[in-house]
Amino acid sequence: MSENVRPYKESSESKKVQVAKMFDNIAHKYDFLNHFFSLGIDILWRKKSIRLLKGRPSEMILDVATGTGDMAFELLKLNPKKVVGVDISQGMLDVGIKKIKEKGKESIMEFQLGDSEEMSFADNAFDIATVSFGARNFEHLEKGLGDMHRVLKKGGSICVLEFSQPQAFPIKQVYTFYSRYIMPGIGKLVSKDKAAYTYLPESVQVFPYGEKFAEVLRKVGFSDVEIHPVTGGIACIYIAKA
Ligand SMILES: C[S@@+](CC[C@H](N)C(=O)[O-])C[C@H]1O[C@@H](n2cnc3c(N)ncnc32)[C@H](O)[C@@H]1O
Question: Dihedral angle at the C-alpha atoms of 179, 10, 87, 142, nearest 10 degrees?
Answer without folding.
Answer: 80
